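Quick one: structure for this chain?
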Amino acid sequence: MSAESNPVRVIELWMVGGREIMERVGPLLAVIRGTVGTDPDLAAQWEVNEVQRRTANRALADLLAGRDALRRGLAVEDAADLAFLIVSAENYILATNTLGWTTERWQHTTAAQLIAALLDVRYLPSSLHIHQPEHALDD
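Got it. Here's what it folds into:
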């Protein structure tokens, strides 16, 4: 993936790996997430998983920033936070369990969300072309 120059393809490849991971650990994460308030050991494991996911999503943001592909005005830290939110275990569980989506549908939809949220307009496929305000992240 680090050799891939196209940022859209970087995200697509990232989500192939994300789907493979979620297919393996998603059911377990659903159980752990459901017991966080009642089992201190599982709560600690959830925290470890969250730190690992934040680190991984920072790596994605760094890959995109290294290609000068982040949306104008989007800091690397903000990109990492957005990726963390979009590719959350909770969203995977909701999509595949509650909504009944296939893991492939989750993968492709999540990739499209990442592309729209993170990438500069020059990289957006025409079907995702959205207006990016000059100061979108200003409070």
